[in-house]
Predict the structure of Nitrate ABC transporter ATP-binding protein.
Amino acid sequence: MTRGDVLVSVDNLSKSFTGAEGHELRVLHNISLDLRAGEIVALLGRSGSGKSTLLRTIAGLIAPTTGSVRYRGTELNGANPGTAMVFQTFALMPWLTVQDNVELGLAARGIPPTQRRERALNAIDLIGLDGFESAYPKELSGGMRQRVGFARALVLEPDLLLMDEPFSALDVLTAENLRTELMALWQQDNFPTKAICIVTHNIEEAVLLADRVLVLGANPGHIRAEVPIDLAQPRDRKSTAFATLVDRLYALLTGREPGTAEPEPTEATPTARPLPAASVGGLAGLVEIVYAKGGQADLPEVAADLNFEIDDLLPLVDAAAMLDFLHVAAGDVTLTPTGKEFTTADIQRSKQIFAEQARHRAPLVRTICTALASSAAGNLRAGFFLDLLRRGFSAQDAQHQLDTAIDWGRYAELFDYDTDTDQITADPNAGLHPAVQNESVTASLDTE
Ligand SMILES: Nc1ncnc2c1ncn2[C@@H]1O[C@H](COP(=O)(O)OP(=O)(O)OP(=O)(O)O)[C@@H](O)[C@H]1O
C-alpha cells in the first residue's frame, strides 16, 4: 500500500437512531468520503452534527442505516479490523496498570503474552510513558492518561488511527504539548499507522493537524465542504496563511449553506431551528463587545482577544443572529439596529427588546408562548414540551433545548418555571394569558 491509496471509503452513508419517543432521529445523511494512506483528515463540525457517530461507523462500532463503509475494499460487517480509537475521555480500565491497559487490545486479538509485552513496551516508549508501566490510571495526570490512550491504540498498529476529540478534555497547555508530540511522531518513519482521522469542533486544531478538513453541517449531519490545508508542518498559528484558513473554516461553519432553504426563525419549528446552547448573559456579552468594537467585528479576532476558542463563541453568535441582534457574513459580525438598541438601552427596555425578539424569532420560545396563551390557565407542565421535543431530539438534547428556552423566557419575563410543580407559567406582565394575574396561579391543565 502506498501513499494516496484508499484505506477506508464511506459511500452514501446515512444513520438514524430511534429517539426516546420511538421517533426516527436522522443523524447522518448521505455521507461519502475516502480516507487515504499518508493523510490526516479532520472532521470538523458543531456539537450535534454527527461527527462521533460518523467516526464510530468508520470504526464499525455502529452499523449504517443505509450506505456502506469499506476497509481496503471490503464492506464492514462489524468492527473495522484496520482501525483503533482514541477517546476524549481516555476510556482506560482503572483496575489495570498502564502496561496492562496497553496490552488489552493485543490480548483480545490473541497475541501471545511475550509479544504483547514487547509491543506494549515499544508503544509506551514511543509515546513518552517510559517509567510509568506499573502505574494505575488514577496516579496519572490527564495528559499522561491520554498518552496511555494513544499507546493503547498505536500498539495495535492500525492502518487508520481514529481520534474522537482526543485533546478536548485536557488543559490548553497539555493539549498543545500532546498535539505537537503527536505531529512529530507522525512524521517519523516508525509511526505505526498509515492515516489519521480526527473528530474535532476546534477550528484551530483542525488547521494545526489536518491535511484535509471535512466540514460537517447538522440536521442531519452531512458534509458541507472539504478544505485542503496546504501548510508545511510544524504549522505556525501566527502566520497569515494559518489565520486565513481559520477564517475560511469559521465562515463555513457560521455561514448559510448555498442551495439550502433553512427556514427563517420567524417561521421555523423548534426542531428545524433548535435554540443554540447560549445563556442570555453570554449572548448579551457578545453583543456588547461588538458594540464596543464600533458595531463590527472579526470573530476569530474577538475570540483571540477574549482568550476563547472560536468554537466557544459559535453558540453565542448563532443565538445573537437568531434574535437579529447581529448579522453574520463571512466570519464577520455586524450589529443590527435592534442589537444596538438592546445593548444600549436600560435594563427594563433591554428585557422588553429581548422578549419581543425571542417571542417571534426563537422557535421554541414562540411555541411555549403560543401554547401558554391557548392553555386554560396560562400554565403547562414542562413535560408536555419535553414530550414534543423528544420527537425531534434525543432525550438529552430535548432537555437542553427546554433549559435554554426557560433561561431565555425567564430573562425576558415571558414565562417562569417551577421545579417543584414542573409547571411553566406565563409571566403576569407578559400579557400572554388573561387568566394569569399578578398572583400565583394554581390550576393546572393536562393537555395530553
Ligand atoms: N445512540 C444514540 N441514540 C440516539 N441518539 C443518538 C445516539 N448517538 C448519538 N445520537 C444523537 O445524534 C446526534 C449527533 O451526535 P454525535 O455525538 O454524533 O454528534 P457530534 O457532532 O459528535 O457532537 P458532540 O461534539 O456534541 O459530541 C445528537 O443529537 C445525539 O444526541
Observations:
- The chain has two domains: 6-254, 280-344.
